[in-house]
Design goal:
Radius of gyration: 21 Å
Order of helices and strands: EEEEEHEEEHHEHHHHHEE
Number of helices: 8
Strand content: 15-25%
Strand order of the largest sheet: 5-4-3-2-1-11
């Protein structure tokens, strides 16, 4: 363990300044007003878990800068860098349970959580951690089911071309896309390209059912690992010591029913404002 790293300090990087707290030398937390990344180190097994990664509430960077996109990845790599400096002998395979989520507006004016893992799998064929950190499944026995899902995305929608999305406005808007799509992957890409930021609103009440169809109602594999030996080391300077916020250790238990899988769309709710064409960037990352 590198003793020159203090328990509390501000790390200055080229993408922002972040308060760092190392609790009992086994929890590394990075953020400002919020603890946005948390890694737990187990000295007995010499392993580490990515316990938490969340930026939606803001408060990650000292000056108030909004951290998103590549900055989120870099902030997480900063945590990995400090972990490797503290424990050079740590097993490079850092484990995580992908319970990632984000809030989505729904037509009745409320917000619900969407499973970012499933949403990303449907739209891109990969999870967030796969596409941003090259994560792999922690258990090799899960690989056949994962491969089968990716293969199913390249199947034709078949009889689902007459699928009812539970709302006449949705049926009218989505059936033309579904009917001209040769595969499910093509349908979801067309969906995102047309509706952009409104895509989660369009999908919230039926995406879990389609995911269940594509996985044949199989298990949702949430255990992943990131090889931090292949992640870039982030350069930083220590600008302050013993001046960081106290964070509460965060934990989250995955609950698939939290993510609107059984949500009901009243047929009289209007989706019109969400069905306006919104320019969406291409999310194609499949070969």
């Amino acid at each position: 363990m590198t003793s020159t790293i203090p328990n509390r300090f501000v790390a200055k990087t080229d993408f922002g300044q972040f308060q760092v707290r190392i609790s009992n030398r086994d929890y590394i937390t990075i953020g400002a007003k919020e603890g946005c990344v948390q890694i737990a180190y187990n000295a007995k097994t010499n392993t580490a878990n990515l316990d938490w990664l969340g930026t939606e509430k803001g408060g990650c960077e000292v000056s108030g800068k909004l951290i998103k996109g590549t900055d989120t990845v870099a902030m997480t790599d900063l945590a990995f860098t400090i972990l490797k400096q503290l424990y050079p002998q740590v097993n490079p395979q850092v484990s995580l349970i992908d319970s990632s989520k984000f809030t989505c507006n729904i037509p009745d004016g409320n917000k619900i959580y969407i499973s970012n893992m499933i949403y990303s799998l449907l739209l891109t064929g990969k999870t967030y951690y796969q596409s941003r950190f090259n994560a792999t499944l922690e258990y090799p026995s899960s690989q056949p089911e994962s491969d089968a899902f990716v293969a199913a995305l390249n199947d034709p929608p078949g009889f689902y071309k007459n699928y009812s999305f539970g709302n006449p406005e949705l049926d009218q808007a989505l059936h033309p896309l579904l009917n001209v799509s040769a595969t499910w992957a093509e349908f979801f890409e067309k969906l995102y390209q047309k509706f952009g930021r409104n895509t989660c609103t369009i999908m919230h009440a039926w995406y879990m059912r389609i995911f269940g169809f594509l996985t044949k109602n199989g298990a949702i594999h949430t255990h992943w690992q990131i090889d931090i030996s292949r992640r870039p080391n982030i350069e930083y300077t220590i600008t302050q010591q013993n001046n960081s916020t106290n964070y509460t250790r965060k934990s989250y238990t995955y609950n698939p029913f939290e993510f609107g899988g059984g949500a009901y769309i009243p047929s009289l709710i209007s989706y019109k404002k969400y069905l306006r064409r919104t320019k969406g960037r291409s999310r194609t990352i499949r070969k």
